Amino acid sequence: xxxxxxxxxxxxxxxxxxxxxxxxxxxxxxxxxxxxxxxxxxxxxxxxxxxxxxxxxxxxxxxxxxxxxxxxxxxxxxxxxxxxxxxxxxxxxxxxxxxxxxxxxxxxxxxxxxxxxxxxxxxxxxxxxxxxxxxxxxxxxxxxxxxxxxxxxxxxxxxxxxxxxxxxxxxxxxxxxxxxxxxxxxxxxxxxxxxxxxxxxxxxxxxxxxxxxxxxxxxxxxxxxxxxxxxxxxxxxxxxxxxxxxxxxxxxxxxxxxxxxxxxxxxxxxxxxxxxxxxxxxxxxxxxxxxxxxxxxxxxxxxxxxxxxxxxxxxxxxxxxxxxxxxxxxxxxxxxxxxxxxxxxxxxxxxxxxxxxxxxxxxxxxxxxx
Amino acid sequence: xxxxxxxxxxxxxxxxxxxxxxxxxxxxxxxxxxxxxxxxxxxxxxxxxxxxxxxxxxxxxxxxxxxxxxxxxxxxxxxxxxxxxxxxxxxxxxxxxxxxxxxxxxxxxxxxxxxxxxxxxxxxxxxxxxxxxxxxxxxxxxxxxxxxxxxxxxxxxxxxxx
Lengths: 370, 162
Prior knowledge:
The complex is a heterodimer.
Chain A: H1 7-14, H2 16-32, H3 36-55, H4 58-62, H5 71-88, H6 92-120, H7 125-147, E1 170-172, H8 179-182, E2 186-188, E3 191-193, H9 195-213, H10 215-225, H11 227-232, H12 237-263, E4 265-267, H13 271-285, H14 295-320, H15 323-369
Antiparallel strand pairs in A: 1-4, 2-3
Helix pairs in contact in A: 2-14, 3-9, 3-12, 3-14, 5-6, 5-7, 5-12, 5-13, 6-7, 6-12, 10-12, 13-14, 13-15, 14-15
Chain B: H1 2-27, E1 30-37, E2 40-42, E3 45-47, E4 52-57, E5 60-66, E6 69-76, E7 79-87, E8 94-102, E9 109-113, H2 114-118, H3 123-126, E10 127-129, H4 141-144
Parallel strand pairs in B: 1-9
Antiparallel strand pairs in B: 1-6, 2-3, 4-5, 4-7, 7-8, 9-10
């Protein structure tokens, strides 16, 4: 006999993370003392800055490869491209476009490598991609710290370390800062809306929607649901998985360039390592899971996660007198939310497995009874 | 047949990306232009600084230069369109010029001597490269002190703005 579930309870259960964040934000906003106009402006800015990066996570989830911690590879490609463009003194929108073009082949190679590695570690994609990101980070540092200067020509002393090779901790992007955001920007009630950035994001959303309907998109969904069934149906499973990771890495590279042009500088050795974690946390806050994520989750996640990021330090300062409490709280929440999502994913998987086993046992029992 | 078409499509995509990249490199080259109102000697003749020069770029005033003064403007591309309001001597009549100064691709910082330019001298006379003064020598390790691997506690970089 089937037990009837309360639909309201089911809704709360399925959206527990976003609901929790809505409650946190609802409590923190009045305490923080920020005006609605300020919050709206900040949210719009951060949405333009981060959404493209978070959208890059959707395709591997569709292909059943979970949360792509390897998106930092794309971020590294984006950073290398921006360092080169900054040294060549290509400014403004042309600089952003050139950096995007340069990042594509680097992202392609890194994505291909990551995809091949993940095919060797089926079922453990997330931890593998996480460790690959550390491995490639080592290579990135080798390139940026030792090869840029003697092997890869870097001319400007404002970019190079005083010792003559390697890149400084911070590279200024002042000459392309917010050029994408300011072009076609409009102001509504004091809030700046970066129309062009939102158009670029909308194009990626449209691409993802249309891509799902293509043969490759359908293949990815089939692979995501069951690799063996997909293989039996004639789908090249390994190739499809590699393509999904390559696409994610390339989009992450482009997203990182959009992100950094908004910030106006590159933290050469740390920008990329933070970004993967925060993007994944934002996606999960939006109600996505390891096996299911939508564009709606991305937008809800960016809004809630960054709303918390804006109000937490001020709330912490008001409650405890120390703004660092709020800072620590937001970092704690980002890592915590990823941990909870991973635990829930494993728990669900085990529950589904035991349920299937029980059903099989029941069916066998009935068969023997007859 | 299909594989040929795919290869052709890929080659065309790569080619178009390369073309776009090339165009971006040309139209996006940034320069810092220093506008000088200083006396200069050329071929044994002295070209004196003018009483006052006001320079506008894109309708915005970038410099108001008396004698022996320098102004600065940034520009993207291979030419700087500048509107000049020139007063040659005290109580003299103000003249207006709109000129496009061609900028060499290879130079980051470019010094334009306006009296020489307005006197109609060739580019070799009025244009020179700005070479920044060498940085004061820093302790070599100062930058590497905080390079990766040295972080122990979460710091501003970890908790930074996202």
